[in-house]
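Aim 2, interim progress: modelling of the calcium ion-bound target.
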Amino acid sequence: MARDEISFDEYDEHINPAPETTDFDGVVETALSRRGFLGGVMAFGAGTFVLGTTALSTPASASVDRFGFEQVSANTLDTITVPDGFEWKPVALWGDPLWSDVPEFDEATRGTAATQARAFGDNNDGMSVFNQHGKTVMVVNNEYTNRKLLWGNRPDAKPANSDDIEKGMMAHGVSVFQVAPKGDGWTIMKDSDLNRRITPRTEMELTGPAAGHELMKTAADPTGTKTLGTWNNCGNGETPWGTYLACEENFNGYFSAADEAHSVSTELKRYGVSSNDWGYGWAQVDERFDVSKNPNEPNRAGYVVEIDPFDPTSTPKKRTALGRFKHENAEVVIAANGRVVVYMGDDERGEYLYRFVSNGIYTPTGSTEGLLDDGTLYVAKFNEDMTGEWLELTPDTTGMSQAEICIHTRMAASKVGATTMDRPEWVAANPAKAEAYVALTNNKNRGVKPNAGGDDTSANAVNPRVENHYGQIARWVPDAADHTANGFMWDLYALAGNPEVHDDVYGGSDNINAGNMFNSPDGLVFDSNGLLWIQTDGNYSDADGFAGMGNNQMLVGDTVTGEIRRFLVGPKECEVTGMCWAPDRRTMFVGIQHPGEKSGSNFPHGGDALARSGVFAISRTDGAIIG
Ligand code: FEO
Ligand code: CA
Ligand code: CA
Ligand code: CA
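Predicted structure of the complex, ligand included:
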């Protein structure tokens, strides 16, 4: 089956399926036993589920409305819909030049490798804004490329030559550019000396425990410490010392084997590497993507990459201490004791939620050298009694060396009995109190088959629904309000669902109703008021179990009352992902990714225009602060 015929995140599994389970009896037994610990499943509508307004929060006065906007209705329009009193404008679209010697985006040709390498990349995802000396710099991940659109000027939307393949490669990576207010919007400052494109060919340094290990060495880099580029950067993070974290997610989909007899190792299979790529063709222009010739090359991807946004000559660093998996974002918290805590999800069905704790202490005036290289990695276990624990990944607990733990992190996590999760996407930590939230986007395999490592994925307390197409948002409060504590209490903030279609657990939790329903929570970001912004990347059919949900969207959650209100609806066939604020917080920047991924959108220009991903500025028409 061609990649284009199924969704992006299903393709991985299609080419490298996890083992089928035949233990149907076990699945049924698990589903039934859930009633034992949840107790309230049958009384679900009565609000007795392990939710929101119970264990971990204190309900506030119902009369207080912290949102400041009226909910927008779900819709399937090919535009951005925001509440009355708000407006939106494009800031950067796929192919927009970052330098004035680059031609404007050409819909007929979609540019060349050379122009794309100096223009905003495709399919923007996580992003941050940094300020220094009066300059505002936007750093944006360009996760992947819409090949149907990128090569839509070619027969069958297939690359016609090596420049087409290289153009696709250059559409990946990270875009760094200065922005400034212009008119009543924001614009790219072309030719700023801070502008930079980081691509799959940018030189990077491997740091931390895995650097220099045998598994990291290749013919081109016998030291195992220098690698080229980053790609498939999904969510992001930022450090208090002013650097940007780009998180490598589906890095596997770019490798292939020219030698058809080549057998991919068990370790690479756990990460979804196979003899076939996902259609990008990179091995045709760069041999390092051929795993039959360079079997260690995939070990050099799947990390968190630290980038200095104010030094375009700096070498980005792949921080192997933060583990290797399909990273979603990296939520950095400075714990009360000064240690750097990084929460990270591994977005794959039945994979895990992680935490890194630095050995060193962060101080605003001290050195930050080594803080993300030296520390301990943990994986989460959620117990049925609403407690949880962070399990250490060390040579003692895993039987693996520290370097191996950082390279084969999934295998390490499987060894310690962590909780298999429903695709952990973004983690967001509340700036107002010691608690964190994770979007568990969906998992059709929950209770159906094990993960790619053979780990059991029966329904469990925090992932309670088999064949979970809707997703949920879980949260935890660390013991003693200390993010470095190994124990925590948890509950579910929201179970997404469709209460118009289902009258059981698939109808969602009490804070989900016909007016605000959604599926597949993905991006999670707290604003300065302690409100939780929720972005979705799910089924936009608006039919059957998803009827009434419309296009992908962005909502806001009040974490105290549990209320969730829809703020924005994206255009057709997009996901809404990535958000940050201008320095004065009068503008919010929001990412629209892959509009028209099935060729059904002309956003944002309308008419016959090519659909383009982009960053959009949202502001209030009265100029007041948002978020
Ligand atoms: Fe790129 Fe997990 O989303
Ligand atoms: Ca995502
Ligand atoms: Ca997603
Ligand atoms: Ca995406």
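The pocket of calcium ion (ligand 3) is lined by residues 425, 441, 522, 537 (CB under 6 Å). The domain at 3-620 is CATH 2.120.10.10 (Neuraminidase).
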